[in-house]
Amino acid sequence: MVEWYLFMPQVRLSAADIAERAGHAEASGFDGMAFIDHLEAPGLAGESIWEAMGIATWVAAKTERLRIGHLVLCDAFRHPAVLAKQAVTLSDASNGRFELGLGAGSWPAEFTRFGVGQQDPIARVEQLGRHLALIRQYWGDDESAGEAVQEPRRSHPIPLVLGGTGPRMMELVRRYADWWNLPANHIDKLPKLASAAGAARVSVQQMVGFARAGSDPNTVREVSKRRFGNLGSGLVCGDADELIAHFTGLAAQRVERFYVWFADFAVPESLHEFGESVIKSFAGAGDAPR
Fold first, then answer.
1. Which one, 80, 172, 187, 248, has least CB within 10 Å?
2. pTM, to two decimals
């Protein structure tokens, strides 16, 4: 079964607006919701952005069914002992709906501005590997952890989602990940990298310019490309039938989860129509629409 997540960067919107979007996503058949993790809005100097774990906790409290996670938390922002504790706490509070998404960081400018992290991308990935091993110890997954195990233990599984495309990151994916996510700006690499994910299940982040019924497809395409054309093949535009065909093609390449990122910033009308048309076409039909 294909899974559908709403990807919702917590930029510009109020916390109440984000929770409202989550409610619409839950009512529209989405399985989960994912946020970003930055100390400043990437490429949007002076724009507001909410802290990642705080907004995830807020949305988890305001929903009943949605799974909650990130694409992805930045390893440099939190000590692994603190992150391990946060993950267990939010997992328990949400009755097992939290997933831990982690990456090595994608916006080095904020490392300089706020004095965190390392500029060297290889060093960041190596540190992520060390921290993943420590998190497993804190959770009690490593029998040799001894006194390093934290209490309380997990009462629910916490799936680990790793995002990235480099060879060192793919090695971590094979070693640790339950899910590997391919970012939208690298979606053209899916045929080459999917096999490198090993046993990890594959997800993709996909920007969508959704032409709702009654809208002008040309206008939707024009606006979407103006806003997000830099994503290349990571942006797909079309009506429900066109999007169904697109996602069917990705599902045929062993993609089991879609993080849908709406070019219109996930207005409720788009969420509901997408759920009624695209998501329902996949429901109960495995990897192919009815």
1. 248
2. 0.95
> Is residue 285 over pLDDT 70?
no
| Distance of alpha carbon 92 from alpha carbon 78, whole angstroms | 20
Distance CA 271, CA 127 (A): 38
User: Using omega within 30 degrees of 0 as the cis cutoff, is the peptide bond preceding 152 cis?
Assistant: yes
Distance set, CA 252 to CA 58, 194, 228, 245, 256 (Å): 35, 12, 25, 11, 9
Does the N-terminal peptide bond of residue 72 adopt cis geometry, omega within 30 degrees of 0? yes
With a CB cutoff of 8 Å and minimum separation 6, the contacts of 92 are 152, 154, 155, 156
- Looking up tokens 């979606």 gives 187
pLDDT tens for residues 232-273? 999 999 999 999 999 999 999 999 999 999 999 999 999 999
C-alpha distances in Å from residue 18, one per residue of 5, 22, 72, 247: 14, 6, 18, 25
Domains by residue range for the chain, with CATH:
3-282 (3.20.20.30)
